[in-house]
Structures are given as structure tokens and as C-alpha cells.
Design a protein that fits this description.
Keywords: Transferase. The chain has eight helices and 14 strands. The longest helix has 22 residues. It is 27% helix and 19% strand.
């Protein structure tokens, strides 16, 4: 077939250099009819305090522990942690070798998990918090990072937020989690492999180069300030996925200047407001920080470039989500909307929250 290739209409694959993977882009499918599952929208109208909430101040949790009457952020060890601090070491059976040792590999993993409440208010989320309030959250993350770094021998602290019931969040009270493990999790490990290979081949930082490239032609940039940029990555999988990047080569939260901390709080607020305004709903997502390990080895400190991933599932509106199924589970991830189209739609909405207009 003759003619000019059209990125907005012709199917193509895009490479993700951060994870050494590909995504199939099918922009011509955006018009297909939808008769599938419809999600419930967020309930809204939540009270500032809920006597039945396990995370509200002064309330009793499921285990019987009582929350303090906290007035800002509140951190506690997860009552149902995914990893244990104390457990026997795993030791393979004597004489275990051959196919069993080759194919049935096991590592014992110790660690600890935390819940971090953003606010005593039951009815707020990050886009409805002030910049100083979000700065308090960043301070809390930083203190926890430092505490785990200085008091434990664990390798990595993964801070993440699942926002919304559709993302598996079991409690609407604004909170995130932090899992600290003695092993480096698979996703940051894949990124380190790519960062290391890129540095060896080109002599520069992959993410520093990517920030520079995107600023030259900002069609995928959603919002930015002096210290950070939020953009829909060229290789995005989720419809309105964004990547928040430090503009300077900064390894972790503990390396931030006061200006960087304030700028990140400001950018998180602006980005999440735009998310909520996109479909005028409390926009669900999974969000996480990738930064230097708390106990790095080899060149990990030098390779680390602070960034955040936002993975929101909504596709066509507040009730239609994307599913990673079929070809995406058995072949490779696929998306309809191009990264450029998604960025334009996020940029087009206001930075004043729709509930405050």
C-alpha cells in the first residue's frame, strides 16, 4: 500500500528503553464500540471523619490497635504486612541439584511494610490537598527512607499508592503504602539493568537524556516547573499513564533541596487535579516512586534518577477502564490512544479542581 505513515491512524510498536520492552499502538481502534464492563464511579460525598474507618484518627483498627489523634500524616507498621521482619532463613534441601535446583528456585525474603495516612481528613485526596500538605507527605516519605536506610540492612523501599476501589484500594481514607524488602524488586531491577547498559554504551544517563529530548519538543509534556516534568511517556501502556522525572540527576528523596521538594509537591497537585478534571471523577491510579535503593550496591547510587510512575486504568470515561488481557498477557501490551493524544487531553483541562469551581 502506498501513502505516508500516520502515527495517529496506523498501527505501530514503540520501544521502552527503561524496561527493554515494546508496546503495540493501535490508534485506529479508538472508535470501536464498547459494550463491556462499566465501572462504578467514586461515591463522593465522604465525611471528614468516619467512625467506621480503620485509618481515621482515634479509631480502633481491625487488630485492636488504636490510632492516635493525629493532625498531619500518620505512619504505622501494616497490620497485615506482605513480608516479615523475623522468620527462619530459607535453606535448600541437602543434595538438591539438577532440574529441581535449576527450575524451582526460591529466595526467602524478609522486610517490613508501612501504611502512611496523608491526612486526618477522610474525604480528601492528593488533588484536594494544599501544596504544604503534600510537602508534609514528602517529608514523611523522606523520614521513613532515612530511617530504613540507617536502621536496617534491607535493600529497597517501594513507596506506592493505590487510589480508588478499581485499583484494589480497600479503604478510601487518603493513604499510601511502603514495602521495605531485603531483595531488589523486579521492576526497579529491570530499570537498573537498562540504565546500566545505556550508561555503558552512551556514557550518559538514560533519563537525563530523555528529559532533555522531551523538552525539545514538548508534545507529550503535561505539566512542568523548574525541578520536575510530568509527561505521557512515548512508550506508555496505560491510556493516561504519566512519568514524573527530576530535571536534574537526583538519586532519591533525601537528596532533594527545599526548592525541589516544594516543586514536586506543586507538580503532584497540578497533575492529579488534571487527572480528576479529565472525567470529573476521583481519578483512580497506581502510583509509585523509583529511586536509589536504601542500601545500594555497586553503581546503583550513581545510576539512580528519581522518578514516579502513574498508572491510571480509565480509558473512555469515568466508567470504562482498560484491561490488560488476551494479546496483552500472551503477546505484548497494547494501547489505542497515542501518547501524544493522551497528553493533549490532559493538558486541555483546567488546573482548578472541578469540585472547587
Amino acid at each position: 500500500m502506498t501513502g505516508t505513515f500516520d502515527f495517529n491512524n496506523d498501527s505501530h510498536r514503540r520501544y521502552n528503553p527503561l524496561t527493554d520492552s515494546w508496546v503495540l499502538v493501535s490508534p485506529h481502534r479508538t472508535q470501536r464500540p464498547w459494550q463491556g464492563q462499566q465501572e462504578k464511579t467514586s461515591a463522593g460525598g465522604l465525611p471528614a471523619y468516619d467512625a467506621a474507618c480503620y485509618l481515621c484518627p482515634s479509631n480502633t483498627r481491625a487488630t485492636g490497635a488504636v490510632n492516635p489523634k493525629y493532625e498531619s500524616t500518620f505512619v504505622f507498621v501494616n497490620d497485615y504486612a506482605a513480608v516479615k521482619v523475623d522468620q527462619p532463613p530459607y535453606e535448600p534441601a541437602d543434595g538438591e541439584d539438577g532440574l529441581r535446583a535449576r527450575l524451582l528456585q526460591v529466595q526467602g525474603t524478609r522486610g517490613t511494610c508501612f501504611v502512611i495516612c496523608f491526612s486526618p481528613k477522610h474525604n480528601v485526596t492528593l488533588p484536594l490537598m494544599s501544596v504544604p500538605e503534600i510537602e508534609n507527605v514528602l517529608d514523611t516519605w523522606t523520614v521513613l527512607y532515612n530511617k530504613m536506610k540507617t536502621e536496617t540492612a534491607f535493600r529497597y523501599l517501594q513507596i506506592f499508592e493505590n487510589k480508588g476501589a478499581v485499583m484494589g484500594c480497600s479503604n478510601p481514607h487518603p493513604h499510601c503504602q511502603a514495602w521495605c524488602t531485603e531483595s531488589l524488586p523486579s521492576e526497579p531491577a529491570k530499570e537498573f539493568t537498562s540504565l546500566r547498559a545505556y550508561k555503558a554504551k552512551h556514557g550518559t544517563c538514560l533519563l537525563c537524556d530523555y528529559v532533555m529530548l522531551e523538552q525539545q519538543d514538548p508534545i507529550r509534556i503535561v505539566v512542568q516547573n523548574d525541578s520536575f516534568v510530568a509527561l505521557v511517556p512515548f512508550w506508555a501502556v496505560w491510556p493516561f499513564e504519566t512519568l514524573v522525572l527530576a530535571k536534574s540527576h537526583t538519586a532519591s528523596l533525601v537528596d532533594f533541596s527545599p526548592k525541589q521538594k516544594s516543586d514536586l509537591a506543586d507538580l503532584i497537585q497540578k497533575l492529579t487535579i488534571r487527572y480528576d478534571n479529565l472525567f470529573q471523577t476521583s481519578f483512580p491510579y497506581s502510583m509509585g516512586l523509583h529511586q536509589a535503593p536504601i542500601n545500594p550496591v555497586d553503581d546503583e547510587s550513581q545510576l539512580s534518577h528519581f522518578h514516579m510512575h502513574f498508572y491510571p486504568p480509565l480509558l473512555r470515561g469515568a466508567t470504562v477502564r482498560k484491561f490488560l488481557v488476551g494479546f496483552e498477557m500472551l503477546g505484548e501490551p497494547q494501547r489505542d490512544l497515542t501518547a501524544e493524544q493522551a497528553a493533549q487531553r490532559i493538558r486541555a483541562v483546567e488546573e482548578v479542581h472541578y469540585l472547587l469551581n
